From TrEMBL:
Pfam families: FAD_binding_3. One of its GO terms (molecular function) is FAD binding. Signal peptide: none annotated. This is FAD-dependent oxidoreductase. InterPro entries: FAD-bd, FAD/NAD-bd_sf, FAD_aromatic-hydroxylase. Residues 3-312 form the FAD-binding domain.
Length: 381
């Protein structure tokens, strides 16, 4: 059995690895000229943790995890407001979860699968045709590939989804926010190692994260009514111009960054994740958004369960896809609902609402509450 995977991000690489382990041949097609790195830090756990363990990559993922010793919330001028200790952060994450850079998840998956699959960089999908027995994929390098399954793991703005399921506008739910993330050249002196600093005010959030091995990520997230077409990196200096602390350095660093992830925050609400022998995976199918904070875990866990369904159903690919979606969709739908709820309180413009949303964090930093949270997650684990 053979699969073509569009996209060499977390979802695509996880799918290629899991299908290889299930005995499939895979071809991965990636539009970028080379493998990308960086991204922002995520909490990896849940079904992703279990899937990574079954695929044999969990030890290496945990080795690359980074520890946050302190999370400091600051005023716009940089003054310290309150902080969460590393113990509190660990308590709220639970036992089977850890923090890791998105790019490090990709790196681990790439290293695990690269010798077992062909990866064509700098290539895109241009056409799809399918019949009862196979799917035929035309690529931008002029070749046509035949396979038993096509996996569209090409992200929020999926070309696979546009070709097979219809235009993005039919599925995109804009969340009224934009985000910009990049890796800084070096860690500023004002950010101690293994710490994160954050400022929220007036519908804007800024964070600078020490993410291990001397690396530092800068994050901008803000409310906007302009939509995707109206968002611009040039707006950031005006939007964040009144913030102090390390914000000016982060804004200057944007000008010389090797790469910047910049996009509006949107969900993909797709009523059915497969059509015939074409299936969507990861952000192409659901995109729970950073508000839910589960995208990487869901991508890896979804790929693991897809491989298991294909193993169970053998040559009956359509039955496998139907069973996989029936099992996974409740989890994805739950996280999307969470993302929509959190959207209303993420970086609120109202100062009073900001104080109310951060009150649980203040309480969690208090010893008795922290110990109660720790006990809760120990019991849950």
């Amino acid at each position: 059995m053979r699969a073509i995977v569009i996209g060499a991000g977390i979802a695509g690489l996880a799918a290629a690895l899991r299908l290889y382990q299930a005995g499939w041949e895979t071809l991965v097609v990636e539009r970028a000229p080379e493998r990308r790195g960086g991204g922002y830090g995520v909490t990896f756990g849940g079904i992703g943790y279990d899937g990574a363990e079954r695929m044999g990559v969990l030890p290496e993922l945990k080795r690359r995890a980074f520890v946050t010793r302190e999370l400091v919330y600051r005023k716009t001028n940089g003054q310290r407001r309150f902080a969460l200790s590393g113990e509190t952060i660990v308590a709220t994450m639970g036992r089977k979860a850890f923090n890791i850079l998105r790019g490090d998840i990709e790196a681990v998956l790439y290293e695990a699968v690269a010798e077992h699959t062909t990866i064509r960089f700098g290539t895109t999908i241009t056409a799809v045709q399918q019949d009862a027995n196979a799917v035929h994929v035309t690529l931008s390098d002029g070749t046509t590939e035949r396979a038993d399954l096509l996996i569209g793991a090409d992200g929020l703005h999926s070309a696979t989804r546009a070709l097979v399921f219809g235009p993005e506008e039919a599925y995109r739910l804009d969340m009224g926010h934009s985000v910009a993330v990049y890796m800084m050249k070096e860690r500023p002196e004002g950010l101690p190692a293994e710490t994160t600093g954050s400022i929220s005010a007036g519908g804007r959030t800024f964070a600078m994260m020490s993410v291990g091995d001397g690396r530092t990520a800068a994050f901008f997230g803000y409310r906007t009514d302009r939509g995707r077409a109206g968002a611009s990196l040039d707006d950031l200096r005006e939007i964040y111009g009144d913030m102090g602390w390390l914000v000016p350095q982060a804004l200057d660093g944007l000008m010389t960054a090797d790469s910047v992830y910049f996009d509006t925050i949107s969900q993909m609400v797709v009523d059915r994740w497969s059509k015939g022998r074409v299936v969507l995976l990861g952000d192409a199918a659901w995109c729970v958004t950073l508000f839910a904070g589960y995208g990487s875990s869901l991508a890896v866990g979804g790929a693991d369960r897809l491989g298991a369904a294909l193993e169970h159903h053998g040559d009956d690919v359509l039955a496998a896809l139907a069973a996989w979606e029936a099992e996974l969709r409740p989890e994805a739908d739950k996280k999307q609902r969470l993302g929509r709820r959190v959207k209303g309180v993420y970086a609120p413009r109202n100062p009073l609402l900001l104080e109310l949303t951060q009150l649980p964090l203040r309480l969690a930093s208090w010893g008795p509450v922290r110990r109660m949270v720790e006990r809760k997650f120990q019991l849950a684990g």
